[in-house]
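Lab meeting, item 3. Inverse folding demo.
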């Protein structure tokens, strides 16, 4: 089953074509990384797919239905979740409450804080939240106030919040930016674990090649808005076009 597919996806800014007829498809359970030099069009591509930008041309299908015409929050409701770069944590709530809110928001399309007072009426949501906390290694700390978590655990909670929506695809934009080497390593391990455990489908934008080669099933290389190569990490690593793009700018 194809989770995400773009056909001829194009975005022009005046005379500049930032994303140029990109055909990309991601299957269920596949972990795909989007790489390319600065200005290649990676962020623009993500903004198109999440409906934050309107394409100039082309189509985007999510779960085999076109999402053109949908608002960003409707895309999220259909199962596309974006982690990182979003201040998604409520600092004064507990770890578990944060996960519950994320699960509720996904199920109901919106949430009210007073849901938390009636959480016993939502055993299913609490179960999802606790399972997610278990899988990101935060179950023991579920009663801690979110703001008191250390940096690495806050990032774990961000992943947990994204997963609590039980997404069909997780988008990650430079998930380890600003992390220490230890935090980076544990986050990469966590993404690998969660992928195994939940058969997670993800699209990752990342410039650290070590991470990309470590966690991707497939790599798509953009340069000047166009896909210049794709394949397994081993295939992409040896591709002369990729080496040219990085060395030649
Ligand atoms: P990447 O994320 O791969 O570094 P971007 O998608 O941010 O690349 O940018 C691709 C190209 O589009 C760059 O040349 C950038 O300057 C240009 N660009 C991105 N956003 C805009 C915008 N809102 N208006 C005009 N040009 C833009
Ligand atoms: Mg970018």
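The presenter then showed the designed sequence:
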């Amino acid at each position: 089953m194809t989770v995400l597919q773009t056909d001829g996806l194009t975005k022009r800014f005046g005379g500049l074509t930032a994303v140029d007829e990109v055909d990309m498809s991601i299957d269920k359970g596949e972990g795909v990384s989007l790489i390319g030099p600065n200005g290649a069009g990676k962020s623009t591509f993500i903004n198109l797919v999440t409906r934050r930008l309107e394409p100039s041309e082309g189509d985007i299908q999510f779960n085999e239905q076109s999402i053109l015409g949908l608002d960003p929050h409707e895309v999220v409701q259909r199962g596309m979740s974006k982690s990182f770069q979003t201040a998604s944590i409520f600092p004064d709530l507990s770890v578990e409450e944060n996960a519950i809110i994320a699960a509720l928001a996904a199920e109901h399309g919106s949430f009210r804080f007073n849901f938390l007072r009636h959480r016993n009426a939502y055993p299913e949501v609490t179960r999802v939240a606790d399972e997610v906390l278990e899988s990101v290694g935060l179950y023991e700390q579920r009663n801690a106030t979110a703001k008191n978590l250390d940096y690495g655990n806050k990032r774990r909670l961000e992943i947990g919040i994204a997963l609590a929506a039980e997404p069909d695809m997780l988008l990650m934009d430079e998930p380890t930016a600003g992390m220490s080497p230890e935090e980076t390593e544990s986050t990469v391990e966590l993404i690998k674990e969660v992928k195994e455990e939940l058969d997670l489908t993800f699209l990752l934008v990342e410039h650290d090649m070590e991470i990309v080669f470590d966690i991707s099933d497939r790599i798509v290389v953009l340069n000047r808005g166009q896909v210049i190569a794709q394949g397994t990490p081993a295939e992409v690593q040896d591709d002369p076009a990729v080496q040219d793009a990085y060395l030649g700018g």
